[in-house]
Amino acid sequence: MRPLCNQDNNFFICSIACIGTIIADTYYFSSSGTIYSLRLPCASMLSQSVLQVPVLETTRLLLRGYQPTDFPEYVTMWADPKVYRYLSPRPMLEEEVWATLLRSIGHWTLMGYGFWSVEDKESGRFIGVVGFADPKRNIVPPSNGAPEIGWVLASAAHGKGYATEAVEAAIAWGDTHFGPVRTVCVIHPKNEASLRVARKFGYQEYHRTTYHDQPTVLLERVQ
Q: Of 11, 63, 70, nearest to 39 (Cα)?
């Protein structure tokens, strides 16, 4: 079935009927010359919590809601020193990873935004997470409710441009969902790779502080 599309300012909005168990609606929009698609799963197959998460598709990645099958890969990712070295003084316990996953799902339900699971389209494997949250950090200066973007990728996915691709898609969605608002991110000063990604999309340092006894750079993006 061919999608029915209408142009609304700079957005092309398309919809198609449910095909099998995969797609209910697709919305295409352009951001910085790149075309993205947002896909919503068919309601008959998924829980209401998962249904609240829009699916973003890029050239190589699928950003979707969490699935139970992501959990083993998620645990493995948080046990890797290359992943947690700038985020935690130790690997996360399995129960902590599970709580993080559940908290991320709940954030979509309560706030209408949250983190996506990042899937490599070619292999179908979970390779990390990206998204926005309001973590209510006990940090000075406070972010005052500004959506905070974050991303974590498995070490096997490092150095391949996946972070840039995933963050670009998340920001494009955020610009549409939040409108012209300030968003922030929190990065360890030695995490040069993440700092480069943040700056690439307009995040600029506005303060340095200590958070959980670790040096921390606070960055913001103001549209």
A: 63
Three-point CA angle 196, 198, 204, nearest 5°? 105
Q: Which two tokens stand for residue 55?
A: 């699916």
Is 68 in a helix, a strand, or coil?
Answer: helix
DSSP state letters, 2-31: PPEEEEETTEEEEE---BTTTBSEEEEEEE
Question: Which element (helix H / strand E) includes 97?
Answer: helix 94-111
- Each residue's pLDDT tens digit, 153-190: 999 999 999 999 999 999 999 999 999 999 999 999 99
Q: Report in angstroms the alpha-carbon separations of 80 from 5, 28, 33, 88.
A: 44, 36, 36, 11
**What phi and psi, each to the nearest 5 degrees, are found at residue 200?**
-60, -30
- The C-alpha atoms of residue 17 and residue 146 are separated, in whole angstroms, by 36
Element (H, E) at 171: helix 162-178
Amino acid at 40: L
The residues pairing with 142 across neighbouring beta strands, listed in sequence order, are none
pTM: 0.78
Sequence-separated (6 or more) residues with CB below 8 Å from residue 51: 40, 41, 43, 65
